[in-house]
Amino acid sequence: MRTLFSENILSPSPALVPRPNPFELLLPSSAPAATSPSASVQSSPRQHEWLTQYSQSQQRVESEEAAQSSYVSNGPRPQYARRKGNPRLFFMGLRKSGKSSVQKVVFQKMSPADTLFLEPTTRIETDSLQSFVTIETAEMPTQLSATLPTWDHHAIFSNVGAVIWVLDIQDEYLSSIASLIETAVLLVTHHPRITFEVFIHKTDGLSEEYKHDTFREVRQRVQDELSDLGHGDRSVSYYQTSIFDHSIFEAMSKVVQKLLPQLPAMETLLNKLCSTCRIQKAYLFDTGSKIYVATDASPTFLKDYEVCSDYVDVVADIKQIYGWQGHGRARAGGEEASAVGESMVTYDQSGDTYVYLREIDDHLSLLCVMGKGSSVDKRMLIDYNVGILQQALLQVFKV
Amino acid sequence: MMERSKRQKQRKVLLMGRSGAGKSSMRSIIFSNYVAKDVRRLGATVDVEHSNIRFMGNLMLNLWDCGGQDSFVESYLSNQRSHVFTSVAVLIFVFDVSSREAATDTLSFASTIRALHEFSPTSKIFVLIHKMDLVPPDQRSRVVHQRALELRATCADEGFASQQVDFWATSIWDQSLYRAWTQVIYFLVPNASAIEEMLGRLAGLLEAREVVLYERTTCLVVTHVTRGVEEGNPYGDRFERMSSILKTHKHSMARHTGTMASEVSFAELQIKTGEFMLFITRLTENTNLAVVMASDEASFNAARVNVQLARREFAHLDIVEKKGKDGQQHAKGPVGSAEVEVRAMDDGEVSSSGRASDR
């Protein structure tokens, strides 16, 4: 059976013991043909990374299972690195820092201009995004402080995967930093496995230099304070965001990616695809919220993400206009095996594809920014490879 | 009439209205690739801004964006009267629906069309009731209707027949802007019916559900042909939506490739789903064609090939005003295979599966 790679990639020495690769870890049944031993040969340095991550997460899982028993994941499978089912995000920050706006814009597709009219949050609000993987979000109103002794932080934080602190850069942010440190310390001491993210928010309309300086300053301060308190090794991620452009989506994508156990598998698949089909950049988009859940290993630039995100919009809009018959049919009931949606746009006369989109399932799309050399003759190859990728992804998520 | 070369048709279009109504904003969005947000940067227009816009190759739009401040309007109506109002093909008058001086606006309108009637009594008037995004949605149709009634009366008073006047509600923040300007362009394109007829034949051959012709730079719909199933499409305003979608897409591509939006040269866009298949491709130098087909791979590929072959036919529409038959005779000269295809198209005998096997 044809593999996903060209012949040159296979190692010359055939008698290599197949090392356990990430696919086999996740799938009880045999992995698709594409992920044969050649996969492990190809990616040996990364291999160990995944294994380490995997064993770490396994340990974590075991300790969690021992700690509490609520919120069981789908099926009793403790040996897989499942983070208790769905990724859960928790938003914190000072008042009017933009927590509800971020949630509404990213997950509920509200227009950024409309967020002016949102009311202040008074109680802990939870929401969930139904997509290929359900992402649940919760937001804490600022009246309740994390360090109030009467406040049961165990109950709140026990299920959370990541805490996002939204810092308003256009307001007085020093007091925010103080609260940030308090919360970070609390989390580190009691809930060390929760990833801590800081969104340096409302960066729209500021000059590049100012943004850069403030970003550096905030990061420096927080690092200093944390190391003073003895938690210098705690990793905190910082993102510059604004709801008025794509930076918030990019940041959310990265946050969500950290919470997905299938990430290494998806990344490998994308890497393979990019190397064989000479794709410049590939993203796996969640079509509804336009967060990308995986990308390949090449350097990420915001403009690649922007063009893909805009293209997803174009295709979704056109589908809505001309796919009107489908709505009626879907409602009439019955699962129809509809053909896979795919789209591409070509620029300039050479006929090279520029952006290529392929639906994996209802919620997931593969988007590729193609480099040179994806002309018509190669299109067959690309189609075939993407088909294999699609099947592999469906298998990865079936578990 | 105007003495021009056979190749170019000049049409004079006046864009008038009170100061701040939105004339320059509309013009820059449609013709100069501004995004709606960018129009904040525009200042008041001083006197008249002339633009010559090539449209569909042989149509030259002579657009007069006339400043709306009272002093300029005074001058048009008095010392520049004949200069401004002679040989006008279309007057586009823009009303700001949120204006508090509706009566003054109407008076200004009345004096403008009085001048127009003196010098170009046969011209067409498009009244755009603009900035509709400032009106609450439930009141919109009522407000537009009322305004239209008043203004029709004014036009009748000044001697314009009711079919010479058209009313459109617009806003730069949605696709209504494209709809209104599409109507203006459609009125101005000289050989619209010839184009439609050829498109109709093409659509029949391709067995397409819908065929839409877009102008390349402005993404405005020139004309379209709808067949069969697609007549039931609930999105009646889909053409202007498509214009708006394509325009945004162009901007996004321009940002990514680092070129100007006006230079982005689109080759092809394809979308295939279970319900339909669509491709948009270059038809002539200045136009793109969008073809919507049923979800069938074979006929889709056949359609793409056929459109490529049909380009030769449509190229003639850009340059010469000769209708169908003559254009085809020209095509029979140079390339042998093209000749065969052209004749086949003429006879309409070729089935889509036959096409696919040729390739």
TrEMBL record, chain A:
GO molecular-function terms, A-Z: GTP binding; GTPase activity
Skewed-composition ranges (Low complexity): 28-45
Gene Ontology BP term (one): negative regulation of autophagy
Tagged with keyword GTP-binding: yes
Record has Ion transport as a keyword: no
Compartments where located: Endomembrane system
Protein keywords: GTP-binding, Hydrolase, Membrane, Nucleotide-binding
Signal peptide: none
Primary residence: membrane
Segments of this protein annotated with the region Disordered: 27-83
Catalytic activity annotation: GTP + H2O = GDP + phosphate + H(+)
Transmembrane region(s): none
Listed Polar residues bias regions: 50-73
InterPro entries: Gtr1_RagA (IPR006762), P-loop_NTPase (IPR027417), RagC/D (IPR039400)
Function: GTPase involved in activation of the TORC1 signaling pathway, which promotes growth and represses autophagy in nutrient-rich conditions.
PANTHER family assigned to the protein according to its UniProt record, in alphabetical order: GH16429P, RAS-RELATED GTP BINDING RAG/GTR YEAST
Subunit: Component of the GSE complex.
Name by which UniProt lists this protein: GTP-binding protein
Organism: Friedmanniomyces endolithicus
Gene: GTR2_2
TrEMBL record, chain B:
Family: Belongs to the GTR/RAG GTP-binding protein family.
Organism: Friedmanniomyces endolithicus
GO cellular component: fungal-type vacuole membrane; Gtr1-Gtr2 GTPase complex; nucleus
Name of encoding gene: GTR1_1
GO molecular function, one term: GTPase activity
Composition bias type Polar residues, residue spans: 350-359
Chain residue ranges for the region called Disordered: 322-359
Description of how the protein assembles with itself and partners: Component of the GSE complex.
Function statement: GTPase involved in activation of the TORC1 signaling pathway, which promotes growth and represses autophagy in nutrient-rich conditions.
Entry-linked InterPro entries: Gtr1_RagA, P-loop_NTPase, RagA/B
Protein name: GTP-binding protein
Keyword Secreted: no
Domain of life, source organism: Eukaryota
Keywords: GTP-binding, Nucleotide-binding
Sections of the chain in a coiled coil: none
Gene Ontology process terms (BP): cellular response to starvation; negative regulation of autophagy; positive regulation of TORC1 signaling
Pfam families noted in UniProt: Gtr1_RagA
